[in-house]
Design brief:
Distance between the termini: 41 Å
CATH architecture of the largest domain: Beta Barrel
Number of helices: 16
Shape: globular
Strand content: 15-25%
CATH topology of the largest domain: Catalase HpII,  Chain A, domain 1
Enzyme class: oxidoreductase
Biased composition (Basic and acidic residues): 1-18
Protein name: Catalase
Structural class: alpha/beta
Number of domains: 3
Pfam families: Catalase, Catalase-rel, Catalase_C
CATH superfamily of the largest domain: Catalase core domain
GO molecular function: catalase activity; heme binding; metal ion binding
C-alpha cells in the first residue's frame, strides 16, 4: 500500500464508519430525523424547524456543474517513483531524487458524454495526473491519444459544440456518429490525424489500466544550468495496450455502463494495482526544425522510431477514493500547474488551455479558492497574498496582504531560481501581432496516412468498419463531404470501402497522401501481454462436482486469472457458491470463457454466450463432458482448448488478448 493518503492528511476527514451521534452542521445533537416539526400530528410544518431547513437546503444545493468535457471520470490514488536522476534534463525534484515516492491522483475519463453516460463509447479517454510534489502540484493533463483535433485553442469550443449531442434534440449521447461532428471534421482538415485515432481500436479500451497516456503537447524541460530541451510525456501501461471490439462495446454498454470504472475499482480492491511507466521523448533545442513537421503542432506525434521513448519512472495506482464527489468530482487539473524544471512551448493549443482551465474551475467549484479543496491542496506549504472569496478555508494571520510591504518584512518573499523560485525559460520572442497559422502547420494528411500504414490488417479492418458505422449514421450530404474532403485525401482504398458500405457517392480520385512512413509503435498488436487482471467466466451445469470447481479455480487463480462461476441460478455446491447467473452477466464482460458440463446438454442461454465469445475471438476452454453438437464451432477450432489436457494453450490464448487469426 502506498503512502499517498498519509501525505494528503491536511484535508479534513469525517469517518462515518465509526459510532457517533447525528448532529446538525453546527454540531448540535439531533434527536429525531424522520419527521419534520409540525403544529399537531396532521398540522403544517413549522418554519422554526431549523434541522429540516438545513437538511433540505443542503440537498437543494449539493450538485455542482459537471465538466463541459471529461464529465464522466473515475479517480484513483497512487504514487510515482523515478528510476534514475534526470538532473541532466530538469531540476524538478520529483524527477531527480530516485527512491523518493511522490503521491499522485489520476482521473480517467471519457470526453464527449455527460457524467451519467456509458464507459465504452467510441471516444478519446482523458488521462490526467496530479503529482503532489514537495515544490507544489504538477498536473500532467493528457489523453490516451497523442494528438488532438485542432491546432489552435480558439477552435476548441467549435469542436466541442460539434461533437456534443446536437442542440435541437440532445441526441446522441456520448457519440461522434452524427451530423454535426462529421460536418466539423470534414470542414476542418487539421482533424484528419486525430480522426484516424478516434476510429481505431484506441477509442474503445479494454480497461483504464490497458491504455497509453500522452501529454499531447510539447513542453520544455529546463535543468539547473538553464538549458532547455523539448519534451513529450508518455504513460506506458505495464499490462499492455488492449481493446474491446466495437460490437462487444455496444453490448457491454447495455450490460454494464460502468464496465471500465468497475474493473479498475475491483482490481484495486483485490490487490491488483494499475501500473504505468513514465516515458519521455526529448528533442534538443538546436534540433527543433529537423523533423518533416513542426514539433509544436498538436496534431502531430513524434514517431518513436525517430525519437525514442526513454522510460524513466513508474506510477502505481493502488488505492481507491473514499468519496467520489469530494475527490474525483472536485479535483481540478490545469496544464499550467508546473514546478521548477518544467515549462511550456509555443504550441497554440497548449497556450489556450493555460487560460481555459482556471476559468472553468471558477464556475464549477464556486470561486478562486478551489485549490484549498482537500483533493487539490499541495502537500507543501503555500503562502501568498490572496485573501477572501467564496470557499475560503484558511484563517490568515497578520495585517498585510500586499507586496511589497515593510510592515511584515516583505513577507511572503519572492525567491530566486537558486532558492527554488519558479522562473520561466528565457526564450526570445518577437513578431508582428497577427491572426494566422504557421506554414509549418499546413500538412494535415501525412501523419494520418502514417497511422493507417502502421496498422495490422485486423486493425485496419476495424478502422474501416468504424468509419462506415459512423458515417452511415449521418445524412447523405455529410457522408459525401466527409469522404471527399477527409478520407479521399488520406487513402483512396479507405474512401472506396467506406463509400461502398454507406451508399455514398465516390468522389473523383485526387492527390491522396503518398506518405509511405509507418511507425510500428502505433499498432496495438506491438504491445505487452500479461495474464494479470484477466478474467474468465466459467459456465457450469448443475451436475458438476465441487472437486471439479475447486480444482478449476485453483489452477486458474494460480496463473493470475480472476474467476467467476456462472450457472442458471445462484446455488451452493458443497462449500462453493455460484457467483453469477446467466441473466446477470454476459461473455462480453470477460476476457475468456470456459464451459464445464456433466451429463446435461448445453442449454440455449449457454450456447448463446459461447457463440458470442467465439465471434469476439476470445479464448474458449472446456472440460467434463461438453458436447459441441449444438455449437457452430468445435474443439478443433483455434483458441478452443480442453483445460484438463491443454491448459497451457488456453492460458496462452488468454494472455494474447484475442485469437486474431481464428
Amino acid at each position: 500500500m502506498s503512502r499517498k493518503k498519509d501525505e494528503l492528511n491536511q484535508r479534513d476527514t469525517i469517518d462515518n464508519t465509526k459510532d457517533a451521534p447525528l448532529t446538525t452542521n453546527q454540531g448540535l445533537p439531533v434527536s429525531e430525523d424522520e419527521f419534520s416539526l409540525k403544529a399537531g400530528k396532521r398540522g403544517p410544518t413549522l418554519m422554526e424547524d431549523f434541522h429540516f431547513r438545513e437538511k433540505m437546503t443542503h440537498f437543494d444545493h449539493e450538485r455542482i456543474p459537471e465538466r463541459i468535457v471529461h464529465a464522466r471520470g473515475f479517480g484513483v490514488h497512487g504514487e510515482f517513483e523515478v528510476y534514475e536522476s534526470l538532473e541532466k534534463y530538469t531540476k524538478a525534484k520529483f524527477l531527480t531524487e530516485p527512491g523518493k515516492k511522490t503521491p499522485v491522483f489520476v482521473r480517467f475519463s471519457t470526453v464527449g458524454g455527460s457524467r451519467g453516460s456509458m464507459d465504452i463509447p467510441r471516444d478519446v479517454r482523458g488521462f490526467a495526473t496530479k503529482f503532489y510534489t514537495d515544490e507544489g502540484n504538477f498536473d500532467l493533463v493528457g489523453n490516451n491519444m497523442p494528438v488532438f483535433f485542432m491546432q489552435d485553442a480558439i477552435k476548441f469550443p467549435d469542436f466541442v459544440h460539434a461533437v456534443k449531442p446536437e442542440p435541437h434534440n440532445e441526441i446522441p449521447q456520448a457519440a461522434s456518429a452524427h451530423n454535426t461532428f462529421w460536418d466539423w471534421v470534414a470542414e476542418n482538415s487539421e482533424s484528419a490525424h486525430m480522426v484516424m485515432w478516434l476510429m481505431s481500436d484506441r477509442a474503445i479500451p479494454r480497461s483504464y489500466s490497458m491504455m497509453e497516456g500522452f501529454g499531447v503537447h510539447t513542453f520544455r524541460l529546463v535543468n539547473a544550468e538553464g538549458k532547455s530541451r523539448f519534451v513529450k510525456f508518455h504513460w506506458k501501461p505495464v499490462e499492455g495496450t488492449h481493446q474491446v471490439l466495437w460490437d462487444e462495446a455496444q453490448i457491454i454498454n447495455g450490460k454494464n455502463i460502468d464496465f471500465n470504472r468497475q474493473t479498475l475499482w475491483e482490481n484495486i480492491e483485490n490487490g491488483h494495482p494499475a501500473e504505468f511507466e513514465l516515458g519521455l521523448q526529448i528533442i534538443e533545442e538546436d534540433q527543433e526544425h529537423e523533423m518533416d513537421f513542426d514539433i509544436l503542432d498538436p496534431t502531430k506525434l513524434w514517431p518513436e522510431e525517430d525519437v525514442p521513448v526513454q522510460i524513466v519512472g513508474k506510477m502505481t495506482l493502488d488505492q481507491n477514493v473514499d468519496n467520489y464527489f469530494a475527490e474525483t468530482e472536485q479535483v481540478a487539473f490545469h496544464p499550467g500547474h508546473v514546478v521548477p524544471g518544467i515549462d511550456f512551448s509555443n504550441d497554440p493549443l497548449l497556450q489556450g488551455r493555460l487560460f481555459s482551465y482556471t476559468d472553468t474551475q471558477l464556475i464549477r467549484l464556486g470561486g478562486p479558492n478551489f485549490h484549498q479543496i482537500p483533493i487539490n491542496r499541495p502537500i507543501c506549504p503555500f503562502t501568498n497574498n490572496q485573501r477572501d472569496g467564496y470557499g475560503q478555508m484558511s484563517i490568515h494571520k497578520g495585517q498585510t496582504a500586499h507586496h511589497k510591504n515593510r510592515m511584515n518584512n516583505n513577507q511572503p518573499e519572492p525567491l530566486s531560481a537558486e532558492e527554488g523560485g519558479y522562473e520561466h525559460y528565457q526564450e526570445k520572442v518577437e513578431g508582428n501581432k497577427v491572426r494566422a497559422r504557421s506554414e509549418s502547420f499546413e500538412d494535415h494528411f501525412s501523419q494520418a496516412k502514417m497511422f493507417l500504414n502502421s496498422l495490422s490488417d485486423t486493425e485496419r479492418q476495424h478502422l474501416s468498419d468504424a468509419f462506415s458505422f459512423e458515417l452511415a449514421k449521418c445524412d447523405m450530404d455529410i457522408r459525401n463531404n466527409a469522404i471527399e474532403k477527409l478520407l479521399n485525401n488520406i487513402d483512396r482504398d479507405l474512401a472506396e470501402y467506406v463509400a461502398d458500405r454507406t451508399g455514398a457517392e465516390l468522389p473523383a480520385e485526387n492527390e491522396e497522401s503518398t506518405y509511405e512512413k509507418s511507425s510500428p509503435a502505433l499498432s496495438m498488436m506491438n504491445t505487452k501481454f500479461s495474464l494479470n487482471t484477466r478474467t474468465v467466466g466459467v459456465i457450469i451445469t448443475p451436475d458438476v462436482t465441487e472437486d471439479t470447481l475447486k480444482e478449476t479455480r485453483s489452477k486458474l487463480e494460480e496463473k493470475g486469472l480472476q474467476v467467476k462461476f456462472i450457472s442458471d441460478k445462484i446455488y451452493t455446491i458443497g462449500s462453493t457458491t455460484i457467483d453469477e447467473t446467466l441473466a446477470t452477466v454476459h461473455s462480453v464482460l470477460f476476457d475468456s470463457m470456459i464451459v464445464i458440463s456433466g451429463e446435461e446438454d448445453l442449454q440455449p442461454p449457454v450456447i448463446e454466450q459461447l457463440e458470442i465469445a467465439f465471434k469476439h475471438k476470445k479464448a474458449i476452454g472446456f472440460g467434463g463432458n461438453v458436447s459441441f453438437a449444438k455449437l457452430s464451432f468445435s474443439e478443433k477450432d483455434k483458441g478452443v482448448s480442453n483445460i484438463e489436457t491443454e491448459l497451457d494453450n488456453f492460458l496462452e490464448d488468454v494472455k494474447n488478448h484475442r485469437v486474431w487469426d481464428r
